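re: ur question from earlier - yeah i can do the single chain one, its not a big deal. heres the input i used so u can compare w yours
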Amino acid sequence: MKETGVVKFNCTWIKEEPLSSDLLADLNLWRDKMYKVGFIGVYEDGIGYGNMSIRSEGKQFIITGSGTGKFKTLSNEHYTKVVDYDLEKNSLTAVGPIIASSESLSHAVIYEKNKNVTAVIHVHNLFLWKKLIDIIPTTYKNVEYGTPAMAKEIIRLFDDTNVNEIQMLVMAGHEEGLISFGKDLNEAGNQLLKLL
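and the output i got, formated as tokens:
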């Protein structure tokens, strides 16, 4: 079974009350859609996969918590806010009721590289992963998910490929892993659903 859902960065987690449900309405709507089609879920060994985020302010964003793929539906207890990160130190600070997703650094650099992006969705689908690898912008195979190396790979794709136009990438070193992003959740989510 694929290793997934393991946090590989140093996280300063400031445990606080859940975020307002009003902030999370669209995230929950799209998260339900992604779960329904199997883009987000849980493997037989109980490890959850897939995560989603929306931009907050500055370099901050709201993201699903680590391991939440195993839940059919999410509540405001399952989201946290990333308030700071440092790739060089492999560190991240999150504030909320749950630790941030293992893919948080990947989401962070997408927001950093494109100021118009307000939504990022990371999904798993073996069929689409095999179909799209090296067809659309693809990270190097030797780069693991959830690491500063993966975040730097995504930066490389923004600098050297048309990932900004396609708004989707394949994580070659993270079997089944795809990332979609857009100006909102509708754009990021619908381009994934169209692939089905």
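Strands lie at 10-15, 41-42, 48-49, 51-55, 61-64, 79-86, 91-96, 119-124, 168-170, 177-182. not sure if urs matches, ping me
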